[in-house]
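Chapter summary example.
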Amino acid sequence: MQVPLLDLKLQYAPLKAQLLAEIEAVADSQALLLGPQTEKLEQAVARYCGAPHAIGVSSGTDAQLVLLMALGIGPGDKVITTPYTFFATAAGVARVGATPVFVDIDPVTFNLSVPALEAALARSPEAKAIVPVHLYGQCADIAGIKALAGKYGIPVLEDAAQALGARHPLGAAGALGAAAWFSFYPTKNLGAFGDAGMVICQDETLAAKIRALRNHGMETRYYHQWIGGNFRIDAIQSAVLNVKLPYLDLWSEGRRARAAFYRQTFAKHALPITLPAEVYAGSGIPRHHIYNQFIIRAPRRDELRAHLTKAGIGTEIYYPLPLHLQECFAHLGHRAGAFPEAEDAAKETLALPIFPELTDDQQEYVVGQIAAFYR
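The structure predicted for these 375 residues follows.
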């Protein structure tokens, strides 16, 4: 049996005619950047999150970058974030000339540790922003993070790239801090046909500046108040996302159902693995974890992955080397052992196939192969 990590063709097939019709309409209009499709998408995502402003941009990476630029964060500034996340989270900070200040993670959720954040703020109270990541589709402890941020007067900027549709007891991912960003990379729960992203913010003046910065800092054509960049979203990507957005909750529930089936199936075996925690499960809120990834912790992880690969099962390691140990951040002076929880997670975590169209038989096969490995 073959079980891919993700098969987007199964999502595409029932939407093919509608998607191609919308793409053809954009092609016929030759309104290829921004325009009515982007305005429609921005309004829909803002409503969906319960936030006042949404600004479509060229990628999730560029969404973070343009937000930091709009906030004036730059050389000499510090931004507190996690070392256990996709590279762009810290790279965006470095690209504007600021310094990422890493904080270790909670070993249960893999999200920013509030006690570790409290210690970091005591050392760096002048930080310009705190960037928690809602990793794998579950919100960070935003209540604890915002309490500390309020104490020091520092804005919280959510990296919600993997979490569109996830909810926290305080609200929806993307609308919990001063601003946030989403990625619409094709493998996300809501994926485009290429790169695309979105900035979410609460402040109207900030939103206006971001809209200018995504278009080379222009508010009036050819008059540049700021030095921005080419961060415009393509109209075709906006059109694709407009077709897909109404299905997002259904797809997220499908992922949740597949996660629940994994739990039921794993419960039949005594295995030395740890399944993903659902820390808000008792809150009564829907989609408190949307499973952009289904992450287990597993002893002999690399051997297990090799075994699953041989059995035709797709897996991935998110992420094999924490950011503080990446070569490009060597100048920050961190050594192995600096953030032990992040380092342990990098050695032990493994992503299993998770998408709505997975079958019971495929998941039973995955679990059976893991059980066979540990016999």
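To summarize the output: The chain has a mean pLDDT of 97.
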